[in-house]
Amino acid sequence: MAGAFKGCQKIRGPQLKNLLEAKDFILLDCDGVLWHGEKAVTGAATVVNSLIRNGKNVVFVTNNCTRPREKYVHKFSRLGFTDVMLEQIFSSSYCSALYLRDVVKITGQVFVMGCEALRSELQEAGVPCVEDAEDPDATIYNCPLAPDVKAVLVGHDDKMTFLKLAKASCYLKDPDCLFLATDIDPWHPLSGGRILPGSGSLTAALEVSSGRKATVIGKPSRFMFECISSQFEGVDPAKCLMIGDRLETDMLFGANCRLDTMLTLTGVSQTKDAEEYRDSELTTNHSFVPDYIVDSIADFLPAFEEQDEQSN
């Protein structure tokens, strides 16, 4: 449980039903928990729709900044999650926009080392971004640098160039220029055993070249939970359950926010990984350990089937 180290309890049936009844807010990661690419995890849509219809506050917390929230709504609907609303989605790109607009109240421009969806989310929030169409012949020796850059924001960028990295490094020479990262996920799994470098790999490169450390907005930082608390009433950490597939991101996020945590085995981390952290002599590793483990989000289904039988 959050606040009392136990960890790795495999939970099913009545225990799972009792846990759900004790929680008001269910925080769900998306990739690896609800879907893989364009294929929903079996039973996930039924579980999410049932949670919402049974009065639970369901919130989606994702470090994936490659699509704005509107497109997430379309994806949820496309994959059968019919009851999901825009207000339930908290992505690292959306929370980055809130941080820049509402917390630091940025007055200058933001240099975005990230994808178009990240820029779109900032612009939707009214945060000015550097318009940076690269000349293919430009180098850091002769390219113009934008004036009044007050923040550099790093996210997923599949069009990353050396020139972008060099420009970002130059902007960060100014100690008053903020250095932010949507998240620090190192990589993401692809089919066939391949991996996709994550925002964390790009952030690490810029940290080395600039000699500075980034402020992380998404999981495992607490700021995403603060965004949720500011937009929903009555968010009590003791009444929240964080469900994810990655120990170093989702479980640590839960630990940082003092939430009970649950690992699903349909994504990156597996039971043996969690047990290694649990049995580690380093107490800091215990923050990566889930309170509960389920094979899949579909393990929730019997709880709702029993409720449906009782209501008939």
Automatic annotation (TrEMBL):
A Gene Ontology term for the protein's cellular component: cytosol
Per UniProt, what is the membrane topology? Peripheral membrane protein
The record lists Mg(2+) as bound by: D29, D31, D245
Q: What does the UniProt cofactor note say?
A: Divalent metal ions. Mg(2+) is the most effective.
Ordered alphabetically, the record's keywords are: Cell membrane, Cytoplasm, Hydrolase, Magnesium, Membrane, Metal-binding
Compartment(s) where it occurs, according to its Swiss-Prot or TrEMBL record: Cell membrane; Cytoplasm, Cytosol
The GO terms describing molecular function are: metal ion binding; phosphatase activity
Q: Tell me one Pfam family matched here.
A: Hydrolase_like
Q: What is this protein called?
A: Pyridoxal phosphate phosphatase
